[in-house]
Amino acid sequence: MADTTSAPRHIRLTSHSGGVGAPPIHWGAATPAERGPIVGTTTTRAHRNVIGTHSGSYSVYRALAVAAGALKREHRADLTNTSPTDLIGPYPQWRDGSKMVSLDPWGAAVADVYRAEIAAGLDIRPTIAVTKAHVILPEVIEAVQKGRLKPDGKLLTANGAAMVTKAAIEPVWYLPGVAKRFGCSETDLRRVLFEETGGMYPELVTRSDLEVFLPPIGGQTIYIFGNPRDLATPEVELTARVHDECNGSDVFGSDICTCRPYLTHAIEECIRGAQPKEAGGRGGVGLIAYSRKEGRALGEVTKFLVYNARKRQVGGDTADQYFARTECVAGVQDMRFQELMPDVLHWLGVRKIHRLVSMSNMKYDAITGSGIEVGERVNIPDELIPADARVEMDAKMAAGYFTPGAVPDAERLKQTKGRGLS
Ligand SMILES: [Zn+2]
């Protein structure tokens, strides 16, 4: 291992209180000054006012880079020219500490709102970044070729590139608020987080004064089609999908589920929703919120084990056994728990989703339960459902997913059958 000049000679315990110079955090306070900055630095430990550190799961790679001598542990980010391309907020929801408990609403603006604190030596890092991009998808190009989408030269170019504003959001958990969402005590949440991560963060149980946790998990990415400020205007029609990561389908086109076709259908709906009416659009705004929750947040290993169990069971892969096989392997049907998902919508100022491109009752219930109105629910068109994904779709519709058609009965669930393994 390379010698890093700044390598500590002994392990510094984080489990004592101390932190002279750590700014207090008043979650949900009206202004960034009153709320206080989130300081997750690993350099000046006295300044830290959170448990954990930045970059979610990538904090482990950062540690590896330090261990390998490739990164100086005292490196401070040069934030020159990194400011958001679009201003998001502040919105009234930002002043309600209960609306957002899993992200820092000021996370994109730290270089600006905590300029003085940064100049005074605090290592305050953005937990949100906002940029612009062109997205080019084969399904969108096909929609242009088949005449379903009409290029307008601004939001959608003639060669099928869509203009987007996108934001990456790292998780920042306010533990009392997270506990409340899950209906458990903060003490229990802290203890279970500590125990189930193999004791990774002792401060969860030793530092009850630290109420904010930067968990080592994936975050969220949002793609906005149209003007981001329109998201906060209920008079402007909003088409939106909240999508949970599925590497197999989203990236590699696996046909066992509907993730990619539903996502690309939603992107097409978002583009059309945001395009001007003269281009055949709906004159509104579109939003995709993408959460890193691979395989219902069970992870890909579990997901593939479940696939095998489904395909090899007696009678083959049938819709009536879809959830049972997941539960056998994982112990639960789903670990995504949509309780924290609406936070990102409140960050964007959303008060009404006119067209929700999702059939999930769990997502719908979480969104409406958080005080956001939902108009129409847009299902995935039948012709976009791959044959092998019919098992998933029928099982989910029988379990409460929204469908404008008939809910499959027990007999149909037995008959809906996927391919074997070979
Ligand atoms: Zn999938």
List the helices and strands and how they pair.
Elements: H1 32-35, E1 51-52, H2 59-67, H3 110-113, H4 115-119, E2 128-136, H5 138-145, E3 161-169, E4 173-174, H6 175-182, H7 186-196, H8 203-206, E5 212-214, E6 220-225, E7 238-244, H9 247-251, H10 259-274, E8 285-291, H11 294-297, H12 300-312, H13 322-330, H14 343-347, E9 352-356, H15 361-369, E10 373-377, H16 390-398, H17 410-415
Parallel strand pairs: 1-5, 7-8, 7-9, 9-10
Antiparallel strand pairs: 2-3, 3-6, 4-5, 6-8
This protein binds zinc ion (ZN).
Describe the protein in words.
Residues 232-378 form the GTP cyclohydrolase II domain. Keywords: GTP-binding, Hydrolase, Nucleotide-binding. Its EC number is 3.5.4.25. The structure is a single chain. The chain has 422 residues and is of the alpha/beta class. The two termini are 46 Å apart. The longest helix has 16 residues, at 259-274. The protein has helices spanning 32-35, 59-67, 110-113, 115-119, 138-145, 175-182, 186-196, 203-206, 247-251, 259-274, 294-297, 300-312, 322-330, 343-347, 361-369, 390-398, 410-415; strands spanning 51-52, 128-136, 161-169, 173-174, 212-214, 220-225, 238-244, 285-291, 352-356, 373-377. The protein has a domain at 23-72 and 82-123 and 172-214. The chain has 17 helices and 10 strands. Helix 15 links the parallel strand 9 (352-356) and strand 10. It has a 7-stranded mixed sheet with strand order 2-3-6-8-7-9-10, sandwiched between helices. A 3-stranded mixed sheet has the order 1-5-4. Zinc ion is lined by residues 246, 248-249, 257, 259.
